[in-house]
Specification:
The chain is 78% helix and 7% strand. It has a single domain (2-178), classed as Rhodopsin 7-helix transmembrane proteins (Rhopdopsin 7-helix transmembrane proteins, Up-down Bundle). It is globular. It is mostly helical and 240 residues long. A two-stranded antiparallel sheet has the order 1-2. It is found in: Membrane. It is a multi-pass membrane protein. This is G-protein coupled receptors family 1 profile domain-containing protein. It holds the Pfam family 7tm_1. The chain crosses the membrane at residues 6-30, 122-142, 172-193, 220-238.
């Protein structure tokens, strides 16, 4: 009983803090039009929206499932909710990768970054959201409810893939695409960026404009690295 209450308190705290933090990011970027002209800020805006959706649709379902509360919504909401959970999760991973690629181009290949216009940023964003929807769509199609008895009286309904013979294959593919590949790619990209930003060739004397730009880029990369570390630390138990 005490463990369930502790879990409930932690889950509610994460939900409130996560939604409030991401809502703050969205508000700050939307209210300052200068921030909207930056490609990295557009990516961060969409990442905040994806994380908010992930928290809103995943946290309540996780709390209900852990507490063993009966599924009270109509049957159609079971696969639909599962689709939304995976949709925002996949979108979040793809947007993390997009931000890593954009920052790598800005820091390591600045000449090519000049071609990375606002239109290109919008295309990247549309591609990330569309791919996430297409990959998550089968989850909403091949789902069914399975009653699970809990303590003889209580029961819940959980959604599972309706194609059990291919379930392991599908999950392994998702694990590779949305965990292993992003983790390896982002580790390589940010390692190269850190070496470039903190290497000997970046030692600039004095308070010049180049030094100010370098400090700004370092602070952005630090923030993104911390964000990715926290993200994958929290995401790892889900994949285990």
């Amino acid at each position: 009983f005490s463990v369930r209450l502790l879990f409930l308190a932690i889950a509610i705290a994460i939900l409130i803090v996560g939604v409030a933090g991401n809502a703050f990011v969205v508000t700050v970027i939307f209210t300052d039009r200068k921030l909207l002209h930056s490609s990295v800020n557009l990516f961060l805006l969409n990442l905040a929206l994806a994380d908010m959706g992930n928290l809103i649709f995943c946290s309540p379902d996780m709390i209900i499932g852990t507490l063993g509360i009966q599924w009270v919504l109509p049957a159609i909401f079971c696969p639909f909710l599962r689709f939304l959970q995976q949709y925002f999760l996949f979108a979040s991973v793809l947007l993390q990768m997009s931000i890593g690629i954009e920052r790598f181009m800005a820091i390591c290949t600045p000449l090519q970054m000049q071609r990375f216009s606002r239109r290109t940023t919008v295309l990247f964003l549309l591609l990330a959201w569309t791919l996430a929807a297409l990959i998550a769509l089968p989850i909403g199609i091949y789902q069914r409810k399975i009653p699970i008895i809990v303590k003889q009286l209580r029961y819940i309904h959980r959604a599972y893939l309706n194609i059990f013979s291919y379930r392991m294959v599908v999950e392994m593919v998702w694990f590779a695409i949305f965990y292993c590949i992003p983790l390896v790619l982002l580790t390589i990209l940010y390692s190269i960026m850190c070496r470039r930003l903190w290497g000997k060739e970046c030692m600039i004397a004095g308070e010049t404009q180049q030094m100010a730009i370098l400090r700004l880029r370092r602070s952005v990369v630090k923030m993104l690295v911390i964000s990715i570390l926290i993200y994958f630390i929290c995401y790892t138990p889900v994949q285990s």
